[in-house]
């Protein structure tokens, strides 16, 4: 299961008729460069609001790349809604300048008046919160 799929079932439970697309992006462990391996969207995605679900942000590079792919498919950044749950401080700060026209819902973004959790996710997201 990929990271965004962890949030997919809850979305399907509350929005049964929602159309879902998929993007598979992997970051190179050494360079942290994001590479798109797979992208499939509903044919009319350019006319829809897009909920980009990414539960754990490490560097933010994969989310930035996902937004680029969506824009290449005709989606306007103003209709992209990023939903993220946890982030490293580096990931949070890296997103803000790159996604200034997108809507971002994340516990660590200052305008939501909440604090970022000091989560240090690993490359595959296997580190769990408060399990030590």
Task: Provide an overview of this structure.
This protein has 132 residues and is of the alpha/beta class. The protein has 3 helices and 7 strands, in the order αββββαββαβ. The protein has helices spanning 5-14, 61-72, 89-98; strands at 22-27, 34-40, 50-53, 56-57, 80-83, 86-87, 103-105. Strands 3-5-7 form a 3-stranded parallel beta sheet. Strands 1-2 form a two-stranded antiparallel sheet. Strand 1 and strand 2 form a beta hairpin. The longest helix has 12 residues, at 61-72.
Topology:
Elements: H1 5-14, E1 22-27, E2 34-40, E3 50-53, E4 56-57, H2 61-72, E5 80-83, E6 86-87, H3 89-98, E7 103-105
Parallel strand pairs: 3-5, 4-6, 5-7
Antiparallel strand pairs: 1-2
Helix content percent band = 10-25%
Cα(first) to Cα(last) distance is 23 Å
Number of helices: 3
Mean pLDDT: 76
Order of helices and strands: HEEEEHEEHE
The global form is globular
Strand order of the largest sheet: 3-5-7
Compute the gyration radius: what is it?
14 Å
Our estimate of the beta-strand percent is: 15-25%
Largest sheet, described in full?
3 strands, parallel
What is the count of β-strands? 7
Regions with little confidence, pLDDT below 50 for 5+ residues: 111-132
Structural class of the helices, strands and pairings? Answer: alpha/beta
């Amino acid at each position: 299961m990929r990271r965004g799929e962890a949030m997919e079932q809850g979305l399907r439970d509350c929005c049964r008729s929602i159309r879902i697309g998929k993007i598979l992006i992997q970051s190179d462990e050494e360079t942290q460069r994001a590479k798109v391996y797979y992208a499939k969207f509903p044919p009319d995605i350019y006319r829809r609001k897009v909920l980009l679900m990414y539960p754990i942000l490490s560097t933010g590079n994969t989310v930035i790349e996902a937004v680029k792919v969506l824009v290449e498919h005709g989606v306007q950044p103003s209709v992209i809604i990023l939903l993220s749950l946890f982030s490293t401080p580096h990931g949070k700060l890296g997103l803000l300048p790159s996604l200034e026209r997108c809507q971002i819902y994340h516990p660590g973004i200052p305008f939501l008046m909440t604090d970022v959790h000091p989560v240090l996710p690993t490359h595959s997201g296997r580190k769990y919160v408060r399990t030590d």
